[in-house]
Write a structure and sequence with these properties.
mainly beta, 10-stranded antiparallel beta sheet, two-stranded antiparallel sheet, 12 strands, 42% strand
Length: 189
């Protein structure tokens, strides 16, 4: 009986998020951020042709239809399930507004995105957002796909580093780094 209780408790703990829901007082992503092409991984682009190098890092292609993902080897294929939009992979600018409980992100020509700290279900997705040792972590899961975004500041708050990890059925796993520089515009509106 004790072993059954231990297994159930372990299962419950595994499902709990270890992300804090309180933003560190010294971290604020608010502002206008421009992509630093020199320090970022190559933009995700369906028209970019593969060099044929078998050891090249896998690339993810976002389609305009339904925000679905496909691998480079089969760009017209859709996943067998929901796939979130991934504007952070192609954005050249982000305008961020952060408050104590959430962060809003405006991308050019993309829907506004509101990320609330904690766990919530949005349609067929489970989204967990919170803080881990000064990094904002946003994890989005659905049946076929897991997207983990990790936001951090460097250079005294002048640089935002966004690391995106993708894993899922029918999609090559990928780790993509996007680096943004804060513009001098103190008021992003």
């Amino acid at each position: 009986m004790q072993s059954i209780v231990a297994v159930v408790l372990l299962g419950l703990l595994a499902g709990c998020s270890s992300l804090a829901e309180t933003a560190p007082a010294n971290i604020d992503f608010s502002g206008t951020w421009e992509l630093d092409l020199q320090r970022s991984d190559a933009p995700v682009d369906a028209s970019d042709q593969h060099s044929g190098d078998a050891d090249a890092a896998p690339r993810i292609v976002t389609t305009q239809t339904r925000g679905a993902l496909a691998t480079e080897s089969n760009p017209n294929a859709y996943l067998a399930g929901p796939a979130p939009r991934l504007p952070m992979l192609t954005a050249t600018q982000m305008i961020i507004e952060q408050d104590p409980t959430s962060m809003g992100i405006e991308y050019p020509k993309q829907p506004y995105r509101d990320v609330k700290w904690g766990r919530r279900e949005q349609g067929l997705f489970i989204i967990e957002a919170g803080w881990d040792e000064g990094h904002l972590v946003v994890e989005t899961r659905s049946a076929p796909l897991r997207v983990k975004e990790t936001y951090s500041l460097s250079d005294g708050g002048a640089t935002l580093i966004l690391q995106v990890d993708l894993q899922g059925r029918g999609v090559d796993s990928a780790h993509i780094v996007r680096v943004f520089r804060r513009t001098h515009d103190a008021n992003p509106s």
